[in-house]
Write a structure and sequence with these properties.
With about 625 residues, the protein is mostly helical. About 65% of the residues lie in helices and about 0% in strands. A hairpin with a 4-residue loop joins strand 1 (about 300-305) and strand 2. Helix 3 packs parallel to helix 12 (about 230-245), helix 5 (about 90-105) crosses helix 9 (about 165-190) and helix 13 runs parallel beside helix 16 (about 320-335). The chain is globular.
Length: about 625
Amino acid sequence: MNGKEYVILVKDKRIGQAFNRNNMTDSGVFLQFTSMVNRWFSAIHTSMNPEFVLTNFARDFQTALGHLQGLKETVGEFQDTEKLTRKIIKDIKSSGVGLKRYIIDQRADTEWSKLAEEFTKAGGRIDFFAFKDVRDFEKTVNNYIKDGTAAGARRWKNKVVEFISNYNAVVENTMRLSTYKNAKDAFIANGMDEQSAQNRAADIARNLTVNFSQKGEWGSGLNSLYLFFNASVQGTVRLFQALFQKPTGKKGLGRVQKIAGGIVAYSFGQSMLNAMLSGDDEDGINRWRQVDIASRRRQLHIYIPGFDNFIKIPLPYGYNVFHVVGDSLASLILGHTTPGRASMNLVSSAAESFMPFSAGSSDNLIRAAVQTVSPTIVDPALDLAFNENYFGQPIYKDPQWGSSDPPSERYWGSTGEAWKAVSRSLNWLSFGTKAEAGFISIPPDIFEFVWETTFGGMGRFIERGLNTAVLTFGPGRITHRETGDIKWGKIPFARRFLSDPTASKKRFVYDKFSDYERSIDLAAGIHDGILNAYGRGNHYDSFRDSDMYNVYRLNGFRKSINNSIKKLQEQRNKISYNRMMRSDVKERKIEALEDRMRDLRIRLINKVDEVMGEEES
């Protein structure tokens, strides 16, 4: 009412259910607990995460532009959508300034702050307030009634203001206010009275991207089980409306459908251009191939030749599926993936965008199914058990390649310095060394995973900020030793928009080497199984005619590579254990050994690619 959202507490449960069209039974203790946990997860990933402000605006901006094109199909007053779109883009800055003045400064004394007030009162404004659970309001109101003092009122006010997160509200509504202003002007220009124009424009602005306040009868219960369930449903519905709503009798493709086709074509061309411009590195591996495919389905990558790096632009949910189609087709033509994996990538992208709960990203179908149906609250335990994060990548390093390193010394190039220190300290306190595991020797990435799960985007922002300070002013390096490139993946804000080629290369080598090891092991097992069961007969001849036999022939080469790596690891462990050697000399020798081990793994990767006659990921 007048731009304010009121919560009505109905004590009679039956009347309350009828009033809300909510036929769910009382949620019980379990759903109340999971709802509380999910509200915490929601806050730390959105309103409490400073990086969310920029990425959310980038996605909302693109989504709004796509949906605006669809409005020409359904809103007769929008005769010139291109002109309307240009005006909306032009007014974005003024809209943001006006919203800040109205929401944060609480003043409505300029043209755009007055528009922000009008827009709010007309019901066009969306806040993360919609994530709030009614029980929190009931508890707060009851406390206020019991207190009945000015101090109680202030506590209630501060609690609500803290949750709303004013700056996120400004960003969330910037495109909406600009759309509201120009839509209202278009309606008035077509003869609509001002009050009706305000109401119609507010409705369009409120539903421009995701309307968080809309939910069905089961919305609250399902939101308690699956994080962002309702937001995902509303976003999917809105996208399908933009794609398929057309005036009665109109034939052919709609405007948004044509845009979707254009995204596919652009993505295909951009992927081919990235591969051509980035070229191969010193090991003969194309740099575009090294960029993780899961990252590519969430962010548009554009290679900048002079900068010798990829810039990243967050892709809007739903529309990113069309981007994945074009990128996957290009990857197939370039030989960077297989048809099976390209199909799985497309299915995973569609599931992430359109399913209201997180789809498992594992290559193992059983694991993926379990991860998909499991409630959010148990996902962290499953991820650790499977050693696979949300993107289907390993959380921590397994003892690959015959490694004898203690768990405290197994970590990724992107692992935070603080977690390495924690893991090494526990290993040392439990009588371990850099070469031998103590009673408590845990991979640093497990500590990092627990921290990031508990504190989400907010925790990662704090962690990366501290790591950047340590690497810049402390004993660490802000650049990669191997290449001298800046560790963009460790720098807050910058990591969202700049790729880290050296870190991508390390991850690519690890994943590809592990993948090829498993493939060769499988081929060797099939070979031995056929010989044991059938001998050298027709079955064995059929096996020799298959591609699997070519993979099996690399088994000896793989064993030789692994033996060489194991010897180098033993040398590294002896150096680590040597207390007589100066630390700087020790570090240089260990780095040289690690470079040799990396080169051996790349030799296997290149050999498999050569034998198979293609570069498949």
